[in-house]
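[SOLVED] Predicted holo structure with fe (ii) ion

Edit: marking solved, answer below. Original request kept for reference. I posted the sequence and ligand SMILES and asked for the 3D complex as structure tokens.
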Amino acid sequence: MQYVRKTSNTGNVHHLEHVNLNFQNRELATKFYECIGLTLDPYQKGNTIWFNAGNQQMHVSVVEDTQTISGEIGIVVPDVEKVLNSLHKHKEQFENTMFNYKVSENNTIEVTSPTNTLFRIIPYNVDSSDAKNGLGISYVLFKCPIGTSKGIARFYEKYFDTKVDVKDQECLIAMGESQLLVFKEDEQYTFDGGYHFCFYVRDFDQTFERCRKDGLLYLEHRFQDKANTVQEARIYNQFRIINIADPKSLEKVIIKIEHEVRSFEHPSFNKTLVNKHF
Ligand SMILES: [Fe+2]
């Protein structure tokens, strides 16, 4: 599988920054992400740790409820052989977990994390259309129920004003010019939520208002940023939604995935990240 990144104007979404997956075991999470080439961010303290992948991050909240994405996360790396060698070298550290890996199509490596999330490690190719888009998290793929991908595409078009590409039983949602969300219909789909991902939008106020008007704001979460009004959202420079539904039948929720939606005023916007291997 190979998803071709977008290179044209993609509208309101600027870029996807991080995916947060809870992990029960801080040490195991650190070993895993460092094994696949990410760098433990030196500036983050507390119970959420960050792992840098180019200009993006995997966030890990160290709490009881370990989370899994049943789709996959694509990460473009500068040296895929180096990652493969690291996997060979460190595999014993992950005994008695779900960890596994294999070399797959297009010289990618499929790595299953200790907690069963699939990461696809993708070689950077200077001759491809990816080259100008750099390294790091390339896409996040979520499985969704059969017959729902067109409605999901309409949701992102309407509320986030971003470019979508509807294919047979899947849709690609542009996260800026170089990243994608992919929703792939799957007969085996089962709900696996709890995690969240974060992205930046150009028109924060209008995006917030579209979501607020249609009752999409998500406030029942564990974080501080609970915003009911655009003025409150501007304090945090972010807001959250969780329900994804076809705008034609908004009351019928298709899938629940927490979105952390940020403005360019957020202090983390386009910050420089420490990377050992990217
Ligand atoms: Fe987050």
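OP edit: The first helix runs from residue 26 to 35. Thanks to everyone who chimed in.
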